[in-house]
Design goal:
eight-stranded antiparallel beta barrel; 7 helices; alpha+beta; elongated; single chain
């Protein structure tokens, strides 16, 4: 008994060590971390690398706040924490400072500044009565020629969600993702006459992902082995807000140069900014086709297509021990519109029951196919139709339906993976009629699709 107790203790210790090892393997934190400087976004460096103006522009920001009223999404009751950080004015001022284009002045807490200046004046008047009055005067405050207004106007939760998973004999793995989205508007207002000089608009998605694996298995009548591992990663909202604000500041600078808003700050030096303006305009042109999720849909498919598939099929007939066999399919598609097409194909496959029956068929088919997301590189599709099976005897007729995924790997070139279910109209594919169930077949295929003709 004591021996078995030692074995159990050893097993528990080993399990703890493995858990610690897995923690290090997956990069999970196991010790406290030191405080660090704040992270930079991709646009921080772009702002700092902008060509500086002849003279910096004095600019004021009174309020740039969260205008969404959005609370953090919660699956367990109410959550009264806001979804967007409340210090967005500070983030904007930091972005203006990093750009080296502006001189930000304190306006968010102007009352504190004025109070402090009043304290300085009172103190000097009280304790420096005999001093030169000119030395007691404070220099005037800077005033802004331009004010920045706007804020975070939208926080959309669960813009896109999805996942993938599989489980077999108690062993499983899954992954999930979720995308939120924030939207920012920033406008420049002239203090001379109140004219709105320029308005820019940016958005940023916020990605959350999780990966999980599990093992659940009875290894004996009274022994259950269960193990789990998982990793979840959420993109910080603060960094997403910072990136969107920095992008808006850069857009404001570039559009101001292009539309000659900044006056003496640029004057006749616009030629040196032409590459920057050209790059920005190219991005604007690309942005015309962008949709939610930072995707760029387009018409990838032409009017006709030719395709070839490698197939594996398995019959469900009246005999036992059906076998998987390889076959091939070649076909032609005519696209009626981006969503629907007519599919005509011919394939060769063999149905076989081990050591009992084997027959090879030539199979022409006609299908109506629906492409679910024709403007995306990766799209699901479904189809259905009728076909015939020839093998030197009377033809066998059948119906079929299936579906799969197509990925446009290049211009007019797609890779497809699909599965198809064939349902015979009769029960004599194998030369025998037995029972009420018609002969059937399950087919899996992978292949290439070449699009030709005009869009």
């Amino acid at each position: 008994m004591r021996f078995y107790m030692y074995i159990r203790i050893f097993f528990c210790v080993a399990l703890i060590c493995v858990s610690i090892g897995c923690s290090s393997l997956f990069g999970l934190p196991s010790t406290p971390e030191k405080s660090t400087l704040g992270e930079n976004t991709p646009y921080t460096k772009e702002l700092k690398d902008l060509i500086p103006p002849k003279e910096r522009i004095v600019i004021g920001v009174y309020k740039f706040r969260d205008q969404t009223g959005q609370y953090k999404p919660s699956e367990n009751g109410n959550n009264w924490s806001t979804a967007v950080p409340q210090g967005t004015t500070t983030i904007l001022i930091k972005a203006l400072e990093d750009s080296n284009w502006f001189i930000p002045i304190e306006r968010e807490n102007i009352a504190n500044l004025l109070n402090e200046r009043q304290i300085i004046r009172s103190t000097r008047q009280e304790y420096m009565k005999d001093a030169d009055k000119n030395s007691q005067a404070l220099p005037p405050l800077l005033y802004a020629g331009i004010l920045l207004e706007g804020g975070v106007i939208s926080y959309d939760s669960n813009v896109m969600t999805g996942g993938l998973g599989a489980r077999y004999f108690g062993i499983g793995a899954s992954t999930q993702y979720r995308q939120d989205r924030i939207t920012i508007y920033l406008r420049a207002v002239s203090t001379l006459n109140g004219e709105i000089l320029k308005t820019v608009y940016t958005s940023k998605t916020i990605l959350s992902t999780s990966v999980n694996g599990s093992f659940f298995r009875y290894i004996d009548t009274e022994r259950l082995l269960e193990a789990e591992v998982g990793l979840t990663q959420n993109e910080p909202v603060q960094l997403a807000v910072t990136e969107a604000i920095e992008k808006a500041v850069k857009g404001l600078i570039v559009e101001g140069i292009r539309d000659k808003i900044w006056g003496k700050a640029v004057e006749d030096n616009t030629a040196i900014y032409q590459p920057l303006i050209k790059s920005y305009e190219n991005e604007q042109n690309d942005n015309q086709n962008r949709v939610i999720g930072n995707k760029y849909p387009a018409d990838y498919r032409q009017k006709f297509s030719l395709y070839a598939n490698l197939e594996a099929q398995k019959v469900k007939d009246d005999y036992v021990n059906p076998k998987f066999n390889l076959g091939a399919k070649f076909g032609f598609k005519y696209l009626i519109n981006p969503y629907l097409n007519l599919d005509f194909s011919a394939s060769i496959f063999t149905i076989e029951n081990q050591n009992i029956f084997s027959r090879t068929y030539f199979v022409p088919e006609a299908n109506l196919e629906c492409i679910i997301l024709p403007q995306y590189k990766l799209t699901p599709f479904i189809y259905g139709g009728i076909g015939a099976m020839y093998s030197g005897v009377n033809p066998q007729y059948k119906g079929q339906f299936g579906g799969g995924l197509e990925y446009m790997a290049g211009k007019n070139f797609g890779i497809r993976a699909s599965s198809q279910y064939d349902l015979g109209f009769k029960d004599d594919w194998d030369g025998i009629v037995n029972g009420k169930r018609k002969d059937q077949a399950l087919r899996f295929s992978i292949g290439v699709n070449f699009y030709i003709g005009q869009k």
